[in-house]
Amino acid sequence: MAAAMAHAVLHKLLPYGGEEAASPRGAFVLLAVSLMLLLIRRFSTTSKKDYDEKDDERLLSRLPSPPNKLPVLGHMHLMGPLPHVSLAALAAKNGPDLMLLRLGSVPTVVASSPRAAEAILRTHDHVFASRPRSMVADIILYGASDSCYAPYGAHFRKVRKLVTLHLLSSKKVQSYRHDREEEVAMVMEKLDGAAAACAVVDMSEVLQSFTNDLICRAVSGKFFRDEGRNKMFRELIDANAALLGGFNLEDYFPKLARLKPVRKIICAKVIGINRRWDQLLNKLIADHVTRLQLLQASGTDDAEQEEDSGFIDVLLSLQEEYGLTTDHIKAIVISMFEAGTETSYLVLEVAMAELMRNPRVMAKLQDEVRRSVPKGRHMVTEDDLTNMRYLKAVIKETLRLHPPGPLFIPHLSLHDCEVIDGYTIPSGTRVIVNAWAIGRLEDLWENPDEFLPERFLDASHVGLKGNDFCYFPFGSGRRMCPGIHAAAATLGIMLANLVYRFDWELPTGMNKEDVDMTEVFGLTVHLKEKLFLVPKLV
Ligand code: HEM
């Protein structure tokens, strides 16, 4: 098993797969695995001279922890392909509130209950508001100077303020309302064509393009729409997700990853991706500066300028006030792309999959949406959504069962902190909140594995805003998702229109039981198989 894990490491580092064990390449892999294990052992068993480290170890060793820890790998061999599921099962047996895992040489504390999550994200939020340092994020996000991966401190607070006040506030999200409606209308038009031709539609593709186009428009404004560039952004977002969410040696064996030759291998690919982002964003920012200058020279007033302004214009206009470098602007834009595209697309895709598996829920939702829209109207508008209680419940239930980031982004403690039951988490510890596990706890949810939106009709106090630690799909506290308003608006308007305009069928020969809900873990969790559906005009 140790060799298997080391092979996984190599699999990430070397440019070929693992099927070739019998070939000369396979022999090389085996040799490399052995060397790797030796190196890993050498660097993970370095004696601890530092007293602080001993103190930390003493505090950590009091936390409940699963048995069967291996030398070097720690508990890594207990992780299956879906870590959030493995962690939930381990927590149920070994630490339902808090549990310590040794992932390689890195101690990681996992919170898997509402009271543990509340301790981390609310009571001691100020202590756990940082992020672990990541070599990949440092390169891709210009020294992790964005708002997702920045360590807690003055720069983070400044960027967070800018993002929440000027890019993603509820007022700003409202101002993009017509853009959203226009983008939805374009998708509906495509689907009209498919419905007329009785064609099978790749919904995964349709929904991913939609969220990608929407975020491109939010970032650079309608004026800069360019299909080719949007596609390039999508490729780069996928590349980032693979790098940030993949198995990264440095997350588990940081000392080893700091070795120059190892570091060089890890960084090579990341630097390549960063260069592509850099070229694309430099050009886009330069275009925006030129356009702004032209508008100013032509005497266009501020209101007119603002009408078609995207995130880049806003960031440029605030550059001086917030003391931002161009690299900071690029980092913020990249994290908006990354955080904004995948999450919303995955939720829409999985919501449609659940609706196809649950025709009763689909019929009830269609009934609500169709009753709420005045007769003869072609599309649902955002005004129509206000009273759609069942639609909101469907979205909440989708996020409970399928949070796109089931383990959130790891937090890091800034000081030693006594959290619950006398357990103290030392400074500098990586902390994971398993929101997926909490969403499926039998003590909290009746029939937790079933898709039952009704449970949220009776519990309308359970919202999206992270006030209740039984349910907090956007997190809570200082690192809570700032995109909550944008996400809620996007999910609502798209889902409502999909079920309003069309009846949906599965491709010939498929039954509802055949909709494959198998997931794949990464930066976000997505369905393994694409979702193909047939739209029928109502
Ligand atoms: C259904 C859609 C979405 C869900 C479920 C979601 C959920 C989350 C969660 C759970 C976190 C991490 C909280 C933590 O680490 O404690 C997060 C962080 C973040 N999200 Fe979202 N998100 C969504 C959409 C968006 C959108 C549309 C944007 C922006 C356009 C966005 C921007 C961010 C940013 C910038 C962070 C990092 C915040 C920080 O570290 O301070 N998210 N999101």
UniProtKB/TrEMBL annotation:
Belongs to the cytochrome P450 family. It comes from the Eukaryota. PROSITE patterns: CYTOCHROME_P450. Heme binds at residue 481. Pfam families: p450. The gene is ga30896. This is Uncharacterized protein. GO terms for cellular component: membrane. InterPro entries: Cyt_P450, Cyt_P450_CS, Cyt_P450_E_grp-I, Cyt_P450_sf.
